[in-house]
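Entry for the shared binder. Reason: the reviewer on the internal report wants the predicted structure included alongside the sequence.
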Amino acid sequence: MLVLAFDTATPAVTVAVGTPERVLACQTTVDARRQGELLAVSIGKVLAEAGVAASDLDAIVSGAGPGPYTGLRVGLVTARVLGSALGVRAYGVCTLDVIAADAAPAAAGREFLVATDARRREVYWARYSPAGQRLSGPGVAAPATLPADLPAAGEGALVYEGLMGGPIPPRYPSAGTAVLLCAKRLAAGDSLPPAEPLYLRRPDARVPGPPKSVLPAPRAPEAQKSTA
């Protein structure tokens, strides 16, 4: 089971390829403004480093967020297009779950949060058991409304430090972790969700309304005088 995984739901563009047993190659670049450009290049570099061809892949996995609309769309559209071209299934994995898998050791036996920056002074969040199993979420909320007594992983915990519990690593998801998690499940015959986004709210962009008229408003008709 050879899986290519990537995630663009945060400022980190992370790509990896591997099997249920090990990650063959992984690359992560933090640059939220070049996700579309970086993803294609990173996929090529990772496949070359691993010494595998795209035609060797058995599945493709993309981070499904939650995350900002533009960045999230880059990864999911790429996964669907690659899957269609190669004739393999494209799946989605919750970005917060991937972060949680790496954060569990730093939580030191406690429940913890994962929070990524949702902009608008909010975070995308989920709550996890000490073993990294999701207990609630994902959701979007103001940082101050979340439990302040729980450690928190993800960029949101650092951006809003002081409003949330103490930050723990990692800051961003790792595609290498996503490869191991998803390849093991697929090899065991488990099902994974399709490559569909977890937006949780509408995008910032809005469809413009009809243009306003520049003509003066028509005058109201004068009331007719009554005649006695």
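Summary line for the report: Residues 83 and 90 are 5 Å apart (CA to CA).
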